Amino acid sequence: LEMLYLGGNLISFIPRQLANLRCLRYLVLCDNCIQSIPPQLSRMHSLLSLSLHNNLLTFLPREILNLVHLQELSLRGNPLVVRFVKDLTYDPPSLLELAGRTIKSRNLPYHLSDLPGNLCNYLDSASKCPNPKCA
């Protein structure tokens, strides 16, 4: 057996015995309810393509790195991917926030007439912050 297609079958787990199919090259388990991958799948050294999209995966076992011949790994539509993409999203601070942080962290003296009004308001609100690191 070189290809196994089990997509869209409401499968909730992958039996570890599946790893005994050592000649399997294509494994399609997409559109199911799978929450985890057994580490034993790492013994499937002939595997070229593993489709796991649209499941409930929140993590991958470290052993998946042993699938050195794997050319395609589809994980879209899993909580794992959503969390990973969210972690990669960079939300840089605004110029106002950077200016306020610099003034506060370096204890720079300033007069209200020297700064734009919105920066003064920002600095006033920062001085009332309950976090001890704000001061």
How would you describe this protein?
- This protein is of the alpha/beta class and 135 residues long.
- It folds into 2 domains: 86 residues, Leucine-rich repeat, LRR (right-handed beta-alpha superhelix), CATH 3.80.10.10; 33 residues, no CATH class.
- It has 3 helices and 4 strands, in the order E-E-E-E-H-H-H.
- The chain has a 4-stranded parallel sheet with strand order 1-2-3-4, with no helix packed on it.
- It holds the Pfam family LRR_8.
Give a brief description.
With 135 residues, this protein is of the alpha/beta class. It contains three helices and four strands.
Defining key terms:
135 residues; single chain; alpha/beta; four-stranded parallel beta sheet; Leucine-rich repeat, LRR (right-handed beta-alpha superhelix); 2 domains; rod-shaped
Topology:
Layout lengths: L2 E3 L20 E3 L20 E3 L20 E3 L4 H10 L6 H11 L11 H11 L8
Parallel strand pairs: 1-2, 2-3, 3-4
What is the molecular shape? rod-shaped
Strand order of the largest sheet: 1-2-3-4
Residue share in helices? 10-25%
Predict the CATH topology of the largest domain: Leucine-rich repeat, LRR (right-handed beta-alpha superhelix)
CA-to-CA gap between the ends?
66 Å
CATH superfamily of the largest domain: Ribonuclease Inhibitor
Helices, by number, come to 3
Query: Overall mean pLDDT score?
Result: 87
**Range of strand content:** 5-15%
Most strands sheet? 4 strands, parallel
Using DSSP, what is the number of strands? 4
Contiguous low-pLDDT stretches (5 residues minimum) are: none
The overall number of domains is 2
**What is the name of the CATH architecture of the largest domain?**
Alpha-Beta Horseshoe
The top level CATH class name of the largest domain? Alpha Beta
The radius of gyration is 26 Å
Question: What structural category arises from helix and sheet content?
Answer: alpha/beta
